[in-house]
From TrEMBL:
InterPro entries noted in UniProt: Flav_short, Flavodoxin/NO_synth, Flavodoxin_CS, Flavoprotein-like_sf
Function as written in the Swiss-Prot or TrEMBL entry: Low-potential electron donor to a number of redox enzymes.
Protein family according to the UniProt entry: Belongs to the flavodoxin family.
NCBIfam families reported in the protein's UniProt record: flav_short
GO molecular-function terms, A-Z: electron transfer activity; FMN binding; oxidoreductase activity, acting on NAD(P)H
Record Pfam families: Flavodoxin_1
Protein name: Flavodoxin
Length: 140
């Protein structure tokens, strides 16, 4: 399993680390990677991909690193299990709904609804991230 993320302010990175904690609490292993260090070859043999990106601009994926990576998955994610997560500071979560629909159109199987947290995960939101990791680990 690979947790691939992009984070500007650290909120999505914190979510990634909490999701990893949940996965590891179930005795599973996952690798935490920033999207800038990942190529398509790194994910071709993965059964589960966990992708994280905050809402950017007018509720869209980050343009310079995440968007090109996600686009590269179009013909390479058929039948893979995918989990999506990210933080946001404005809007209504439209970016996550669009991302989920896009992954489905690429042939991915979503493990669950995408996990979103407003701003920095704290308290109850930290628990949500850990539980999301547990859910992912149990889907393996």
């Amino acid at each position: 399993m690979k947790i691939i993320y992009w984070s500007q302010s650290g909120n999505t990175e914190k979510m990634a680390r909490l999701i990893l904690e949940g996965i590891e609490s179930e005795g599973k292993k996952a690798e935490l990677l920033e999207v800038s260090s990942v190529s398509l070859d790194d994910v071709k043999n993965e059964g589960i991909l966990i992708l994280g990106c905050p809402a950017s601009g007018a509720e869209e994926l980050e343009e310079s690193e995440v968007e090109p990576f996600v686009k590269s998955l179009e013909r390479n994610i058929q039948g893979k299990k995918v989990a999506l997560f990210g933080s946001w500071g404005w809007g209504n979560g439209e970016w996550m709904t669009e991302w989920e629909n896009r992954m489905k159109s690429y042939g991915a199987t979503l493990i669950s609804e995408g996990l979103t947290v407003q701003e920095c995960p704290e308290g109850e939101d930290e628990d949500k991230c850990i539980n999301f990791g547990i859910l992912i680990a149990k889907s393996e």
